[in-house]
Design goal:
With about 180 residues, the chain is of the alpha+beta class. The protein has one domain (about 35-175). The protein is built from 4 helices and 9 strands. Strands 1, 2, 3, 7, 8 and 9 form a 6-stranded antiparallel sheet that branches. A 3-stranded antiparallel sheet has the order 4-5-6. GO terms for molecular function: hydrolase activity, acting on acid anhydrides, in phosphorus-containing anhydrides; nucleic acid binding; zinc ion binding.
């Protein structure tokens, strides 16, 4: 259970109307956490495919090297090829036949594998995924891949390699009538 729901349990419960049956459901947050997805580096092709999809093909802020040099010198920040990737169009899918972990939960965006929920978290929540008594809200964010910076003389832009990283902010709700 996330720290906010522990501190403010009454804030994190709500009542919703089901439009079809007019039955009232009480939803209570029973899990909330943010974490780095695992396995992304073993599935680089898929990870970059999702990054291209989420970025709409715009890389390095969509700016040229002249602009990037000015930005880097002004902010002292490197610029990643994939910056500020974000989506709520996330599907969690159990993978009980996974030979490494029977509780494995893979994360999909646009029907493409992005990564796995860490094993210690998957063990706690696996039974809730794809169970009608629970629902989840997930926000996937990411950034990384190659990045641009300036050389030591701050004269020209250079490109370096870095892994692409995805994080998931996951909230699971228990639904009760």
């Amino acid at each position: 259970m996330g720290i906010l729901s522990k501190l403010f349990p009454n804030i994190f419960s709500s009542t919703k109307d089901n439009l079809d049956t007019k039955t009232e459901f009480k939803e209570t947050i029973i899990f909330h956490d943010s974490f780095l997805l695992m396995g992304t580096n073993y599935h680089k092709k898929e990870a970059y495919q999702v990054a291209d999809f989420l970025s709409g093909g715009e890389h390095y802020f969509g700016k040229d090297n002249k602009y990037l040099k000015s930005y880097i010198l002004r902010t002292y920040k490197t610029v990643y090829k994939y910056n500020k990737l974000k989506t709520v169009d996330v599907i969690l899918q159990r993978e009980p036949l996974n030979k490494h972990d029977k509780n494995a939960i893979k994360v999909l965006v646009n029907n493409t594998f992005v990564g796995y929920i860490p094993a210690e978290i998957a063990r706690k929540i696996a039974f809730m995924i794809q169970n009608k008594k629970y629902r989840y809200d997930a926000i996937l964010t990411g950034r990384g891949g190659p990045y641009k910076t300036v050389d030591l003389d701050t004269e020209k832009i250079i490109e370096r390699k870095k892994e692409l990283s995805y994080y998931l902010d996951l909230t699971i709700w228990k639904i009760a009538k």
